[in-house]
Amino acid sequence: MAPFASQVFGHPSGHHRQARAARQAVEDARDQVAELLGAAPGEVVFTSGGTEADNLAVLGVLGAAARRPGQETVVVSSAVEHAAVLEACRAAAARLPGVEHALVGVDTHGVLDLERLAEALDARVSLVTVMLANNEVGTVQPLSDVVALTRRLAPGAVVHTDAVQGAAWLDVALAARGVDLVSVSAHKLGGPKGAGALVVREGTQLEPLVVGGGQERERRAGTHDVAGAVGLATALASVAKDRDAEAVRVGALRDRLADGLLDAVPSATEAADRKSVVPGTCHLCFEGVDREELVVLLDEAGVCVSAGAACASGALEPSHVLAAMGVPARIARGSIRFSLGHTTSPADVERALAVVPEAVARLRG
What we know:
Blueprint: H1 2-5, H2 17-37, E1 44-47, H3 50-66, E2 73-78, H4 83-95, E3 99-104, H5 114-120, E4 125-129, H6 143-153, E5 158-162, H7 172-175, E6 181-185, E7 196-200, H8 215-218, H9 226-264, E8 268-270, E9 281-286, H10 291-300, H11 320-324, H12 329-332, E10 335-339, H13 346-364
Parallel strand pairs: 2-3, 2-4, 4-5, 5-6
Antiparallel strand pairs: 1-7, 6-7, 8-9, 9-10
């Protein structure tokens, strides 16, 4: 990224040599992202991250659908989507005429209820949005089944998936095959914050959220973040190269962490079925403690954890994900997410195993 943040500083939409070099970097990054996500280069729209990609997918599709006169429009989502999707669905229902939002529940492990999804699908549905992997508990959703049901019961609907949490661990090109819109974010892959992309399959009707210079085939105007696009492409390529080996290594560390804490801490529970969770997520509930206080104690001991979704940390509202899974409020109050990744070592896990039980015991006392 460094040359494009300093030396090659031309505007990619310009025509002089500095601009041409910047434009070539953007298009090379687009080619690389497209290949890794199973898309054509022209189907990749660079964004400022996963939130913008999700908003563009939801509001863009529903905005286009709402233009069709006299037609009722329904967006169907799972109850455990990221706030970027849920709030976009709610905003569309509040702002656009004739738009309704239907939520589909999940089981106790956070897996989408396919029978309830089938009940929600009909000719009125314009958009179905189901994430690839949950950002709090890590559960992987049955996307191929979602696509099959949608094509059969709501053939006019567009399917979107928020693949932000899953892209580090799953082959998105394979997992999201048949999906019309796919959101990714660089920072979940070791890339820069503030860079992401939305795959928009050819033929998908989408209204832009940002208008102006006509960039990204008039789907997202504005001067390109050249370094960000390069960073996203590089991070995706690095993850793809090491994905299988890292999934095995990190999964083993996650299992060591989860099993050790479940053994060491009385009344500790695991939020989801580990067999259906991405390797980098370990979500546990410690009954009898407040998650915000536990985060502070662990931070003081050098162990960084999250009280639910990172974008909601600091807020005291209960997790909508755990609520949808039927986790009682008294248990959800002590929920903590441990995130593991490329830099996680066995020593990190052993440190957590030494610190967490003591912190929980201190709070319970």
